[in-house]
Amino acid sequence: MVKKGTWVMITQTILKPLERSAHVPLDTMRVPFVARIKGWLTDDAAIGDDVSVKTVTGRIESGTLSVIEPYDQHSFGHHVDALQDIKAIIDSETETIT
User: Fold this and answer.
1) How high is the mean pLDDT in each 10-residue block of the chain (98 residues)?
2) Of 16, 80, 11, 14, which Cα lies nearest the Cα of 51?
3) In sequence order, what are the residues at sequence separation of 6 or more whose Cβ sits closer than 8 angstroms to the Cβ of residue 28?
């Protein structure tokens, strides 16, 4: 059980697959358009329950409880040698300008 006031993320379906534009690629059209919203849980709940959260801006949003205490997991990827070489070239060219 997740307690009221816990920082969570909910998912909210904005558009079902059949409601999506005909101008998007087929693989995109086959899945719903979903929002992921973070906020504080307004009542005790369990993962998968329909819940409401209060966002940092004070809005009340509803959706399906999906993540407890979410955190950023993104990365800028692995090191690329070619980018370091390009940076060195740019740096050397800007030194000649100044």
Assistant:
1) 98 96 94 98 98 98 98 87 92 77
2) 11
3) 20
